[in-house]
Specification:
alpha/beta; 196 residues; 6-stranded parallel beta sheet; binds adenosine monophosphate; 9 helices
Length: 196
């Protein structure tokens, strides 16, 4: 299978060529068509398998095709660590470089001023760690009422790091009608329960 077989829009396939990507990895081959159709997805994949592109590419395409003009958070990617969050933001920016969508990353451990200013300028795709996201929501700086796509990345590490309550609190704040993508390297019972 090639990226051409996935029927990607030109601005994205051009960016992938520029990144030097020649063919989709197995997780990309399996996930991209389903996510493009708007389906929910449970993916078992480790970092290093091309997992980020497996969700970032179809999210960018779905948001572009819907062509919603308002600048509000339409996709949220929740991930456990600052390092992962930064990598995911960089991937969205790379694959989306020929698109007008705006991606931002927010995480704790730094002053919130710069992140807050960027949020106020308007964001389409937000990558966040749970604690800082909840801080911004409680201050009324972030609203998730227009959210369409929610990604829970590295769900097993979220649990290991003690984020389960934060994740559940965040999920309760999301619109019921949305697309949900759930990625975990392992699927113990705790993760199955969370996914349910
Ligand atoms: P990830 O599993 O998302 O952390 O990605 C691991 C690495 O693989 C990253 O450096 C990506 O840039 C790279 N990558 C992802 N998809 C592809 C692909 N289809 N072809 C070549 N490299 C890729």
């Amino acid at each position: 299978m090639t990226f051409t077989d996935l029927n990607l829009i030109k601005p994205i396939s051009k960016a992938l060529t520029e990144e030097g990507y020649e063919k989709p990895t197995p997780i990309q081959q399996q996930s991209i068509p389903e996510i493009l159709k708007g389906k929910d997805l449970l993916g078992t994949a480790q970092t290093g398998t091309g997992k980020t592109a497996a969700f970032a590419i179809p999210i960018l395409q779905n948001l572009t095709e819907k062509n919603i003009q308002n600048r509000s958070i339409k996709a949220l990617i929740l991930t456990p660590t600052r390092e992962l969050a930064i990598q995911i933001e960089e991937s969205f920016k790379a694959y989306g470089r020929h698109l007008p969508l705006r991606t931002l990353v927010v995480f704790g451990g730094v002053k919130q001023g710069a992140q807050e200013n960027a949020l106020k300028r308007g964001v389409d795709i937000l990558v966040a760690t749970p604690g800082r996201l909840l801080d911004f929501i409680s201050q009324g700086i972030i609203s998730l009422k227009n959210l369409e796509i929610f990604v829970l990345d590295e769900a097993d590490r979220m649990l290991d790091m003690g984020f389960v309550h934060d994740v559940k609190r965040i999920v309760k704040l999301l619109p019921q009608k949305r697309q949900t993508l759930f990625f975990s390297a392992t699927f113990p019972d705790e993760i199955k329960n969370l996914a349910d």
